[in-house]
Amino acid sequence: MSAAVRIQHSSGDWESVISLFQELVDTRREPGGSLAVWRDGAASLVVHGGSADLAREVPWSADTLVQVFSTGKPLVALAALQAVADGSLGLDDPVTAHWPAYRDTPDHPTTLRMILSHRSGKHTFSPAAAGLDPRDHAALVHDLEAMEPLTVPGRAIAEHASTYGHLVDGLLAAVGAPSVRAYTEALSRALGVRLRFGVHSHELPLVAEPEPLGTAWTDPYLAHELGRAALLRPAGLLDPETLRSPSWQQAPFGAIGLITDATSLASLYDDLGRPDGHIAQALGRELWSELFKTAATGTDGFLRDTVRWSLGFRIDDNGEPGMGGIGGSCAWYSPAHGYSLGYVTRGLHTHDRVTLLADAVEAALRGENGARAAREGGAS
Questions:
Q1: pTM, rounded to two decimals
Q2: Segment 225-264, tens digit of pLDDT
Q3: Do the domain assignments include residue 218?
Q4: What whole-number distance in Å separates Cα of residue 119 and Cα of residue 303?
């Protein structure tokens, strides 16, 4: 097959970005993936290239979907926040007020705010969960329900790498609110995108096959005990054969199981950043603004790094809300530069590729803004 990058949409001077993406595909640092940039409510650049399969026989197309791991966590948070907006939950209610079977520490009750900012103390499944099927959603929710918090709720920060979605789904089920999967389907319809925690059966042929490009994508996490507990319970979360199976691709796994495309992610973040967007209107201005505020900051025990968490998003040093996933996929909104970006890949590696692409995107935007300023200055 041709290794040529396919330009699905381009509005502006993106030649340097497209050339870089082509180089990544040519050198097979990008075996298959896509990049999308949205500005002012519309697609500005969408490119894709490489293959969707291990045999490199099926070209990546505009219809290709791929698992993006933790990049999907913000949708889990949005499902919970919609339940808050609807009056089913309160951010600071004790979880046990709604979910009586939830095992907690009475002196330091867990709240939804703590869960969404990765401070519930249930940042891994129990040791017994190592023997559970990762597709058994109910069993995993029960495992979290029955286990005692590993740390005092609200005190320690540790990304809920695998437990995030099941914790939220357990709470949503307790109050009769739509599940993460159901909420995400409804949001997809509202935005006209494809965000799936479990793809539809007719979409299975569109799902790209993940391909590890060495071990750098897992090494930093598996090097410490908490990381191993988070990613190896239940077994199979990092196993390419499991991840390629139709049964996994149709199962809801809210922490890491989002299957989508770059355009959908960029469109989601474009909507997220607008006060007149669907998400802001659905949540209400006050709750929507919480997405951009720091809810917890400090050293994250899973990431082994200093982080700022809002309610579902990681906030970077520039105040940009976003989320990346193990393996390299990523998405964010940049208030400073006025764009949203989605990058997805089936090549499981580090985030070095999206870092390069983001630098090229922002350089192109600076060049465009500089040219505009020069034109406007000359016309004055």
A1: 0.95
A2: 999 999 999 999 999 999 999 999 999 999 999 999 999 9
A3: yes
A4: 13
